[in-house]
Amino acid sequence: MQEVFYSWNFVKAILFLVEIEKSGSLWDNPHNREKTFEKGATMKANTKKRKKSIAKMKEVYGKEEMVRRMYRILVTGKRGVDLMMKELGSMVVEAIMYIEREEIAGPDYQPINPGIYQWASQPGSVYLGDQKIKVTRPRLRGKTGEIPLKSYQKLKEPEQFSEELLTKILSGISTRRYQETVIDAAQAFGISASSVSRHIVEATAKQLREFKERNLEDFQPFAIFLDTIQRAGEAFIIALGIDLNGQKLALGFWQGATENHEIAEELLEDLQRRGLRLSNKIIWVTDGGKGIIKTLKDSFGKKLIHQRCTIHKDRNIQQHLAKRYRKEAHLRFNTALEQTSYEDARRMLLEMEKWLRGINESAADSLLEAMEEILTLHRLKVPALLRKTLHSTNPIESMFSMVRDTESNLKRYRGSKMMQRWLASALLDGERRFRRVKGYALIPEVIKNIEVEEENIKNAVLVA
């Protein structure tokens, strides 16, 4: 099975399900080259509204996100299949016709057959099972006039689009097998799977270029999360940033065989090459990977502000202990971190370290070696609400979850290019679901605390 394809033409075919504010008719093709021959000021106004609404949705959401929004609508439709049967069937029918037109004439503004070109669209009707439904059919023109679409001719015959085929399509939609669903439906009417799937390479390659070449000069980092996601035996170190306004952004990634110092270094260099200003005032959050930490210490030395993921450290300590001690260890650890002041939290962790010594020396050593990095946020007096976001790598782990969800239907990766294309697409898609972090209004207060600490260190050095 080829790579998953979310066709923009499929979006056009199902765009009428999106609420276009009071635009009148539910359908319009934003790429029509010819003006409508219909008369009347109302129809012209509605057409302009529809085109403006479609353009605005593409601008706000992006094509890929709009496709996914359509699919979610389809999933919802499955729950009310009795009411949505006609709508779902007409969506697939229109997608099939647009795919065939593109296969013959080429994509919009990129003709592949001289003398054959797209010619707007017009109302039509097809049979869905034993019911006749209205659809919008795309048109083709040649030197001798209208070129009929084979799929449309077949669909005008009763029983061509059978209840059985519709059931298969609904089943594919409900299980998120979108690629197989569209390809199977297209093939049923004589359209090749390759014409459906070839565009995904172009689409994802474009997104990869967009992601890897994105200018970061305007991004003012407050905190950066670094973590690694494994994909097909390869390690991808990914950077997620939070700016001074609390907005999140996927900054970049770098591929390597393992999570190591060199790969992390390459990632930081790439971020700087694209304009990201890495200062001593940035809070870095990691899971404690040695390669990443070494890179950060080499770059910032003693001025590094590093918060170790408390969730990873809690799990690490518990792995050293017999089951009968794990619950108490977890309780002691979390109770310490719930303290507001650095002094109280540190005192309780030291008491925990002493308790661990009597049970497991390795567990005590594990806590002790990361104690100061666990308490970085306490030392900087980061308010509790904001600390909930920064104390662990959960924000980047959530992004990884979005990546896995987006790529869940891929059968296998065919090389590094495909892995990077899909990762970039998934990260860009995930960005559209990012929300501003809780407690963002307190970020300026934390910045002041960082500056005060920096000044105190300078004064201490001068005194010494």
Features:
464 residues, five-stranded mixed sheet, 8 strands, 56% helix, elongated
The structural class is alpha/beta
* Beta-strand content: 5-15%
Unreliable stretches (pLDDT < 50, length at least 5) are 1-39, 56-61, 69-84, 161-179
What gyration radius follows from the Cα positions, in whole Å? 28 Å
Q: How many discrete domains?
A: 2
Total helical elements: 19
In N-to-C order, the SSE pattern is HHHHEEEHHHHEEEHEHEHHHHHHHHH
Helix content: 55-70%
Task: Please tell me about this protein's structure.
- With 464 residues, the protein is of the alpha/beta class.
- The chain has two domains: 8-207, no CATH class; 216-309 and 392-455, Nucleotidyltransferase, domain 5, CATH 3.30.420.
- The protein contains 19 helices and eight strands.
- The strands form two sheets. Strands 6-5-4-7-8 form a five-stranded mixed beta sheet, sandwiched between helices. A three-stranded antiparallel beta sheet has the order 1-2-3, covered by helices on one side.
- A hairpin with a 2-residue loop joins strand 2 (131-142) and strand 3.
- The radius of gyration is 28 Å and the shape is elongated.
- Mean pLDDT is 75; it is low at 1-39, 56-61, 69-84 and 161-179.
